[in-house]
């Protein structure tokens, strides 16, 4: 048995409408809070939209649940500066998400050039409002496996030189270079790590055939990078914390000639992290990573309830309802080695 302070998920895609209603319980069964990504279609670009979206999430959450969704704004070339001041004053809006235009699912409206949002970044630095970053360059001339590393060199490092006090979360890091970079910088820079990047290397994209349900962005990397992520997540360094990037898509959108990016891990998220931490005999480091460091970074109180995991093998269902469609989770039809004890 493993009992932890209730964790939070600092990077989550909840989608909207009836699809959202079907997937909220997978997260709220375990996590107290989640930082909800704004990449809807159309994106959540204003505080009013974020607060409306939050109301829809709360309305779709079981009345008995204490799940608290925390919101982000989608940064565009045209984000008005007034939204940043409003976001700073909102208890429900925790930060702003920077998608380089074209970097990932629903990022078309993202930032084309950081110089276009300079005054926004200045305001965020002043207000100490965190910037969440999808850290990949988008040029097709750059190999997809190098896009995070090049982003750090060409975009992030100059950005942090210009804004040394900007509070930044480099989301879903996937490489040794990102791990080293985050370790090397001050406490204003942190990173989230997903369960799937801790458990899988890029061979899983092609294991016996092409595996659309293992395709996400940033794409899985080679084993040495996975090892670096495991080291960082289990280091006890508070700059690294849990963000699942659980990103459901309808089965037809994944199993397609041009399948979209995103892995749905919410139905076993904490259990998958426990499996990864156990691989390196570091279960004692899971609570800090899952339950403390994210809350500390976002300057929120740590949770007071607990969750308990039991070492018990069970089988992940082949799919779940996703509105009128189905979504295939990670490990569909296969074993999960930890299970949350229902209280
Ligand atoms: C995410 C999605 O589907 O919204 N996809 C993914 O592969 N991670 C977007 C993102 O976080 O990049
Ligand atoms: Zn994401």
The strand line-up of the biggest sheet is 2-3-4-5-6-7-8-9
Helix-strand pattern: EEHEHEHEHEHEHEHHEHHHEEEE
Going by helix content, strand content and strand pairing, the class is: alpha/beta
The main β sheet shows up as: 8 strands, parallel
Polypeptide structure, described:
With 343 residues, the protein is α/β, with parallel strands linked by helices. The chain has 11 helices and 13 strands. It has helices spanning 17-28, 47-60, 81-89, 118-127, 147-162, 176-184, 195-199, 223-233, 251-254, 269-279, 286-297, and strands at 2-5, 9-12, 33-36, 68-74, 93-98, 131-133, 168-170, 189-193, 240-242, 306-315, 320-322, 325-327, 335-340. The strands form 3 sheets. Strands 2-3-4-5-6-7-8-9 form an 8-stranded parallel sheet. β4 (68-74), α3 and β5 form a beta-alpha-beta unit. The chain is globular. It binds N-carbamoyl-L-aspartate and zinc ion. N-carbamoyl-L-aspartate (NCD) binds at residues 13, 39, 104-106, 134, 216-217, 245, 247, 261-262.
């Amino acid at each position: 048995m493993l009992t932890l302070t209730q964790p939070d998920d600092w990077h989550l895609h909840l989608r909207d409408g009836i699809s959202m209603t079907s997937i909220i319980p997978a997260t709220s069964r375990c996590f107290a809070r989640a930082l909800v990504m704004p990449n809807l279609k159309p994106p959540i670009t204003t505080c009013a939209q974020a607060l409306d979206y939050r109301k829809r999430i709360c309305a779709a959450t079981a009345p008995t649940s204490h799940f608290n969704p925390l919101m982000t704004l989608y940064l565009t070339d045209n984000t008005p500066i007034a939204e940043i001041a409003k976001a700073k004053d909102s208890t429900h809006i925790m930060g702003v998400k920077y998608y380089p235009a074209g970097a990932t699912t629903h990022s078309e409206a993202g930032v084309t050039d950081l110089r276009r949002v300079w005054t926004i970044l200045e305001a965020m630095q002043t207000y100490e409002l965190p910037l969440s970053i999808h850290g990949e360059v988008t040029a097709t001339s750059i190999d997809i496996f190098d896009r995070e590393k090049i982003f750090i060199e060409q975009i992030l490092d100059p950005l942090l030189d210009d804004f040394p006090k900007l509070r930044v979360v480099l989301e879903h890091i996937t490489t040794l270079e990102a791990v080293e970079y985050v370790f090397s910088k001050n406490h204003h820079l942190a990173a989230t790590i997903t369960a799937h990047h801790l458990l899988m290397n890029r061979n899983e994209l092609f294991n016996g055939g092409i595996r659309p349900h293992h395709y996400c962005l940033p794409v899985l990397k080679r084993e040495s990078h996975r090892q670096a992520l495991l080291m960082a997540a289990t280091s006890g360094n508070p700059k690294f914390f849990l963000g699942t990037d659980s990103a459901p898509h309808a089965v037809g959108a994944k199993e397609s000639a041009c399948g979209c990016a995103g892995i749905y891990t919410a139905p076993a998220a904490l259990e998958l992290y426990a499996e990864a931490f156990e691989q390196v005999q570091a279960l004692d480091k899971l609570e800090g990573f899952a339950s403390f460091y994210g809350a500390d970074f976002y300057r929120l109180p740590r949770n007071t309830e607990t969750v308990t995991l039991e070492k018990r093998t069970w089988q992940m269902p082949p799919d779940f309802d996703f509105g009128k469609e189905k979504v295939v989770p990670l490990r569909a039809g296969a074993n999960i080695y930890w299970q949350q004890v229902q209280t």
